Amino acid sequence: MVQQLHPAVGDRRALQRAVVEVDGTEGEPVQLVTNIVDATQETLRVGARVTLACDRLEADVGLPRFRLG
How many domains does the chain have? Predict the structure, then answer.
């Protein structure tokens, strides 16, 4: 099954996808499947630290992605 993206996402899909585990949560780890922007296969590695880089697509729609660093 293919999950439809919000129309505002358009062609903002990055090629580098990853599973990010969110720090500071209690209980079971919170993991997100997301894009890592400004990363390449050479710079992206397991265990790399990332920071939130949320893109505003519309007034009430944001796209959470991450950057290395």
Answer: 1
